[in-house]
Write a structure and sequence with these properties.
This protein is mainly alpha-helical. Helix content is 61%, strand content 3%. The protein is built from 16 helices and 3 strands. Bound molecules: iron/sulfur cluster.
Length: 308
C-alpha cells in the first residue's frame, strides 16, 4: 500500500511538472469566468478544439454573460452558433442560462449535482464546470483521460467507464484537480495517441502498466482497427445526403441565412432544401419541422417557418 501511495505521488508530481511546461494554450484555460467555461464545454462536446477556438471568442463577444444569452431571441443564438452544428446545443445552452437567471440569481451553481440539474448539462459538463470554474475536487473524464488512465492503471485502452471514473477520482491530487484533469487531457490529445502512443515522451511512463508490459503490437492493431471502424460508422451515419439529419441541417441553415426573421413559406422552404420538391413531399417536410419544433429550433407561424 505504501508502495502504491509513493507511486501515485511520483506520478502526480511528474504529470503536473510536465503540464507546467507542455500545456496547450487554450483560451478557456485563461479565464475563471464560469459562464465562459460552460460555453467552451458545451461547444467542445461534439466539436474539435481547432474548430471551437474561433467560435468561442466570437460567441462570447456576442453574448458576454449569462444575462445577455438568456435575454436574446433563440434564433439569434442559433445564428451565432453557426458553423458548429449540432444546433440543439445552442438551444440547451440558452435554456441553462435562462434557468440560472430564474432560479440561481444569475450565478451558476458551484456543485456538480446542482449543475447537473440545469437543462442540457450532463455529468461530464457538470464535472468540468465544477472543477475548472470553481476549483472543485472532482475528476473530469473525457475519452482522452479514459484512454490514458486505462492504459496506465489497467493496461487497457478502452476500460469500463465506471472503473475508470473510480480510479480517476482516487488519483486526484489534493488542491490540484484542475491542472491534473487538464494535464491528462493534454497527454491523451498529444502523447498517448490511440494508434501510436509516444511513451518515451510521456510523464506517465514510469508508472504506466501499458508501457511497462510492452504494449503488444496486436493490441495496437486492434485499437487502430476499432478506431477505423468507429470513424467509418460515423461517416455512414447521418448526416449523409438524404438523411433526416441532413435535411434538418439544411432547414436550419436556410432559416439562418434569411434576412430578419419573418420566416419562409412552407413550399418555398421545401424547394430550397430538396431538389424536385413536390406537393406530395409536404407531409415529409411537416414531420421534419415537427421534430425541429420539439427541439426548439424552429417556429411555425401558419404557413411560414422561422427561427424561434
Ligand atoms: S506511457 Fe505510453 S501508454 Fe502509458 S500513458 Fe504514456 S503514452 Fe500512454
Amino acid at each position: 500500500m505504501q508502495q502504491r501511495s509513493e507511486g501515485n505521488h511520483a506520478l502526480r508530481e511528474g504529470v503536473l511538472a510536465w503540464y507546467s511546461l507542455h500545456q496547450r494554450g487554450l483560451p478557456w484555460r485563461a479565464t475563471q469566468d464560469p459562464y465562459a467555461i460552460l460555453v467552451s464545454e458545451v461547444m467542445l462536446q461534439q466539436t474539435q478544439v481547432s474548430r471551437v477556438i474561433p467560435k468561442y471568442d466570437e460567441f462570447l463577444g456576442r453574448f458576454p454573460d449569462l444575462s445577455s444569452l438568456a435575454a436574446a431571441p433563440t434564433g439569434e443564438v442559433i445564428r451565432a452558433w453557426s458553423p458548429l452544428g449540432y444546433n440543439r446545443r445552442a438551444v440547451r445552452l440558452q435554456g441553462a442560462a435562462r434557468q440560472v437567471m430564474a432560479e440561481h440569481g444569475g450565478k451558476l451553481p458551484r456543485g456538480v449535482e446542482a449543475l447537473r440539474r440545469l437543462r442540457g448539462v450532463g455529468p461530464y459538463t457538470a464535472s468540468a464546470v465544477a472543477c475548472f470554474a470553481f476549483g472543485q475536487q472532482v475528476a473530469v473524464v473525457d475519452t482522452n483521460v479514459r484512454r490514458v488512465l486505462g492504459r496506465a492503471l489497467l493496461g487497457e485502452t478502452r476500460p469500463p467507464p465506471q472503473q475508470v471514473d473510480r480510479l480517476a477520482a482516487e488519483a486526484l491530487p489534493l488542491g490540484r484537480a484542475a491542472d491534473w484533469n487538464q494535464a491528462l487531457m493534454d497527454i491523451g490529445a498529444t502523447v498517448c495517441a490511440v494508434r501510436q502512443p509516444r511513451c518515451q515522451q510521456c510523464p506517465v511512463q514510469p508508472s504506466c502498466w501499458w508501457a511497462a508490459n510492452g504494449q503488444s503490437q496486436a493490441a495496437l492493431v486492434v485499437d487502430a482497427r476499432a478506431l477505423a471502424e468507429r470513424r467509418a460508422a460515423y461517416r455512414t451515419q447521418p448526416p449523409f445526403k438524404g438523411s433526416s439529419r441532413y435535411y434538418r441541417g439544411r432547414i436550419v441553415e436556410r432559416l439562418r441565412r434569411r434576412e430578419g426573421n419573418r420566416g419562409v413559406p412552407l413550399a418555398e422552404l421545401g424547394m430550397a432544401i430538396k431538389e424536385g420538391f413536390a406537393p406530395q413531399d409536404t407531409p415529409w417536410l411537416e414531420t421534419l419541422l415537427q421534430g425541429l419544433e420539439q427541439d426548439g429550433l424552429v417556429r411555425r407561424d401558419g404557413e411560414r417557418v422561422r427561427l424561434p
